[in-house]
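hiii so my PI (J.) wants the whole complex modelled not just the main chain, which honestly fair. so below is everything: four entries, each one labled with what it is. i double checked the lines twice but i was tired so who knows lol
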Amino acid sequence: MKLTCPIEKATSFLGSKWTLEIIYFLQEPRRFCELQELMGGINPATLTQRLKLLEAEGIVNREVIPDAQRHVKYELTPKGKDLVAVYRELSMWVSHWYPEEAQ
Amino acid sequence: MKLTCPIEKATSFLGSKWTLEIIYFLQEPRRFCELQELMGGINPATLTQRLKLLEAEGIVNREVIPDAQRHVKYELTPKGKDLVAVYRELSMWVSHWYPEEAQ
DNA sequence: CATCACTACTATATTTTTTATAGTAACTAT
DNA sequence: ATAGTTACTATAAAAAATATAGTAGTGATG
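here's the output for the full assembly
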């Protein structure tokens, strides 16, 4: 007897390690190696997997920059940017309940 | 060169499978087996682990009801209830971007 | 122009986490 | 007396994450 939970869809991808942090850092466009550095411990295979998942979900856009080096830029789609309100609330919660750690 | 991310603390426990859903369903007090039923696929060992973690984090309160059966009730602490604002934003995001699935 | 570095990954083996399944101890209902 | 409920724990297997190394394409340095 499983009730439908309106956030079930969201938790299917947000509720896995790193995803919340990836989206947070993508509030400005980043390259793959930038994300790696920002999120110290992430494994490149995991990062790749998450970015593909978020891309498939329409939250993240992957763009190959047409320079000689063919750098890759990741950025939030409008759907992804729309999650900023969620982060605003979450940040407020953290700064309220963990005042010493927020900044 | 790891920048501090204000939601890093939050992601350390929210960013793992089931946690977001558990807190969602605890918007009203529940017993262990209720949570199990509500979240179809969760493993009891995982549920136990998550509830302990959330209890240690001060988000969930565990209470043994002093009836003969010694039922156990889980509920959100004020800190946990304060996450409701986050869920409100997340629910709005889901109902906007997944209109067919929300409800 | 050979060597080294950087970028954006992929491959493999190991470790960690999650799961399926079964079991337990205390009570309750028939 | 037997079966059912509740709140878990135990164990082994499956799935996911990690460390580590490697690759292919460029670019920079001597």
